[in-house]
Amino acid sequence: MASSGQLRELRQRKQSVESTKQITRAMEMIAASRIQRAMRRVDEARPYAELIHEIIRGLMASHEVSEHPLLSAHESIDTVAVFVITSDRGLAGAYNANVLARTEELIGRERDEDREIRLYVMGSKGVNYFRFQEMAMEETWTGFSERPEIEHAAQVADVLMRGYADGDLDRVWTVYTDFRSRMKQTAEAMQVLPVEQEEFEGGEELPAEFLYEPGPEEILDRLIPSYVEAKVFAAMLESAASEHAMRQRAMSQATENAEEVAEDLSREINHARQSMITQEIAEISAGAEALSG
Length: 293
Prior knowledge:
about 290 residues; about 60% helix
């Protein structure tokens, strides 16, 4: 039989669960609103990257430009950079676990080829993970995983491009989360450097009446770094949208779980109250029988 103290404890537990449910529901609504903004930013950034891509394809098809250092593969691949995009906050389901597992898989494959790995990490969760694993990190960036700006992508891309152009890095990967829909997000590994020349195949030659100011080679020198920045920025935006989507789902599930726990506690409370009432009635009946006897 439940005592008054046990009944009070059950009520306190239910109140705590109800408070948690309110918090998770609020976080779910916030994440849902941020998904819309993140998806809109992905759509807004796409035309810029596509236009740069088309111009480069035209320049490459016209055969008027020479080899660019970011397009040239190194003779041997000894040092590989891996840029990992994680979140600054938790409560996003398997978001960070998936991207970190994909990173470990990529690192393992490169190490099987006797290549040195250099880590570049974005997001506090990734930084803390690799620090716990005692893996050295070359550069880290935190504080903007939920809303990255082009300036952040430019900082990251500049570090990676300088390392590749100087010969310190022979290949650069980006591990991010691809936002395919609200219900599906996938951890992916994308090669950023060297830029694959196959990406620019099939372009139409620019008309002969085009005038270049400055010349085609100078234009390409500016466009290729911008193209790399755009790819890094796109990966950041895709990851941000994925983070919000997975946080919304995680908070929705947490809210449903809290509702189930609250219902279970309500049943326990009702059962305990009924037991106490039954016991009181039994005691009163026993006392009345004793007095009548």
